[in-house]
Amino acid sequence: MNKSWNESARSSLKSANECNEYFEGSAFKEFHFPIKIPLEFAERIDKSDPLDPLMLQILPKEVRASEGFFDSPVADEEHSPVKGLIHKYPSRVLLIATSVCAIHCQYCFRQNFDYVSNDFLKNWPAIENYLMNKKRVSEVVLSGGDPLTLSDKKISKILNKIEIIGHIKTVRFHTRTAVVIPSRITQELVDMLNKTKLKVVFVFHINHAREVSDEFMKNVESLKTHTLLNQSVLLKGVNDSAKVLSELSSKLFESNILPYYVHLLDKVSGADRFLVTDKRAKEIYKTLQTLLPGYLVPRMVRDEGGYSKRLVL
């Protein structure tokens, strides 16, 4: 009998001891950002390779001061007129739907975010009032945390709240959960999204082709009536080659997912080991353009922490 997605989420490695027992010979230690690795994701890691690209994303390292790296590198707080809402761009807002993620990635730019005071539902009356008065806003991005760690019932309630605001036409899910725990794409979720009057967009977060399981490819097929995109982060040792990024784009396209962005690293404290220099990033991107048709080449961007993303090329 297959596990439910909730059972899969609970079946996670959450301590250095558990990880060192599972990944024999590994050197996990516990630092400020808690360990969380679903077994479904852990099973895709090559235990014999200490430099496995999936392993490197979730292996904690001690945080040391590094010039140019900050606790809040994208300045979310400076663009939060209402707690639980981030408004950087005129036509769309981002809602902090939850503080929970299915997996803890060590390069996460929100690992120091104040989720307690940014509780989305607690602040909903103020958020609703704000959105009612912002007629230019036509899209709501559900982020966090990861919105797909919420139950289908809670997601339904959120969609109902958004639908009340007439000038909002699109809801976008930013999610990694669907990739690391593919069973999260439930029939109930699919039916709910097919019924909403909102245009639905998924932006998955996948960095390497080996993250894409057969189960994910099968389950994501049920979302094919919606817009399916992917964003990656360029990470040293993980996907910092044109070949790896090309393989990822091709794998995504097998599931009708289009590459959207490849982000340069947000310089969050403790993530300096993942940094790819601008010079190297541009070299990778130029080569990538020769390997793929244009529609499979993601845009390489940097979040400037202000009102726009800057194209690197």
Structure description:
There is one protein chain. The chain is of the alpha/beta class and 313 residues long. It has two domains: 5-58, no CATH class; 76-311, Aldolase class I (TIM Barrel), CATH 3.20.20.70. It is 29% helix and 17% strand. It contains eleven helices and eleven strands. The chain has helices at 5-10, 16-22, 39-42, 53-58, 124-132, 152-163, 177-180, 187-195, 214-220, 242-254, 278-291, and strands spanning 12-13, 37-38, 85-89, 92-96, 139-143, 170-175, 199-205, 227-233, 258-263, 299-303, 309-311. It has a nine-stranded mixed beta sheet. The longest helix is centred in the C-terminal third of the chain and has 14 residues, at 278-291. The radius of gyration is 19 Å and the shape is globular. The model has no long low-confidence stretch (mean pLDDT 92).
Write the layout of secondary structure elements.
Elements: H1 5-10, E1 12-13, H2 16-22, E2 37-38, H3 39-42, H4 53-58, E3 85-89, E4 92-96, H5 124-132, E5 139-143, H6 152-163, E6 170-175, H7 177-180, H8 187-195, E7 199-205, H9 214-220, E8 227-233, H10 242-254, E9 258-263, H11 278-291, E10 299-303, E11 309-311
Parallel strand pairs: 4-5, 5-6, 6-7, 7-8, 8-9, 9-10
Antiparallel strand pairs: 1-2, 3-4, 10-11
